Amino acid sequence: MAPPSAQVMSSSVDFLGTMDGIFMKQQMEVLEALTGCETKNRYHLTPVPQGTPDPTPKEWLKNFKQNAQYQPFMSAKEESECFERICCSPFRGFNLPFVDTYGRAFLTVQRPFKCDCCYIPPCYTCTQQEVKVTDAQGMTLAIARERSYCCTSCCTRSFDAMDATGNLIYTIQASECSSSRGCNVFAPSCCNESYDVDVLDAQGKLISTSSWVFPGCNCAGLTEVTNSVLRFPKNATPQQRAALLGGMLLVEYAVIEFRTQKNNNN
Question: 240-257: per-residue pLDDT in tens?
C-alpha cells in the first residue's frame, strides 16, 4: 500500500484513521554520533497499511524502513533549546510539528521543560513529564502524562493518554522486564530485537502493543537510532489515535532516550 497522497489529506488528524499504525524512523545525526552531544531529533514516517499482520513481520519492517527513509509521507523535526538538550536532555521541552512533503503541519506535539532533581524512574519521580497534542489550528486534542512514582514499581513505567479535558483514553505500560509479548531485557538490541509496550484501555484491558525495533548491525544500530512501530487500536477515532501518538512520543523521550543517555554515561 502506498503512503497517503498529500493532496487528499485534510489539515487535521483525520489521516490517522486511514491506517493501522505508523512506522517512525529517526534520522541519524552525524554530529551526535561523532561527539555524543544531543542534537535535535528528526523523524521520517510511513503508514502501516490497513490489514498489516500484528506482530509486524520482519519482511514488512524492511519495507517500512525503506519507505520511511526514501519516501516518507510525513516528517517531524524537534524544535528545542540547545542548553536544555545538552544539560537537561531527559526533561527538555520541545515542539514537534508533523508536516507533509509540502511543509504543511497537520499536528504538533508540545512538551514543556520540567526538571526533576529526584528522577529515579520507575522507583521514584517528583515531577510528571507530559506532552500536549494540538491540531493544525492550535486546538488541543490530547494530553499524555507519566504517572508519578514513590517506590511503587521496580521495572514498569506507566503513561496516561487523555483527551483534551483530561479523561483517560489509554494507559501505556513500558517495562524493563517484560510485556504481553515476552521479555524486554536488553531490548532493542542484537540480543533482543523488539522492545514492546502494552496499550490498555480505560478499563485496564490490553488492546494493542507497539514496539521499538533494533535497526540492525549497521551505523544506525551502533548509535541506537529509533525505529518504532505504533499500532492503533481497532475502531479508535483519529483523535484517540492522536492521543496515543502523543503518549508514544512521551515514551520515546522519557524512556528510550533516557536509556540511551544512561548507556552513553551522559
Answer: 999 999 999 999 999 988
Please give the model's pTM, rounded to 2 decimal places.
0.89
DSSP state of 233: P
CA-to-CA separations, 205 to 27, 41, 149, in angstroms, rounded: 34, 33, 22
Domains of the chain: 9-263 (3.20.90)
DSSP state of 30: H
3-state percent breakdown (helix, strand, coil) of the chain, nearest 5: 25, 35, 40
Q: Is 181:173 a contact under the CB 8 Å cutoff?
A: no
Contact 168, 162 (CB under 8 A): yes
Burial of 68 (0-12, 13-18, 19+ CB in 10 A): buried
DSSP-derived 3-state class of residue 50: coil
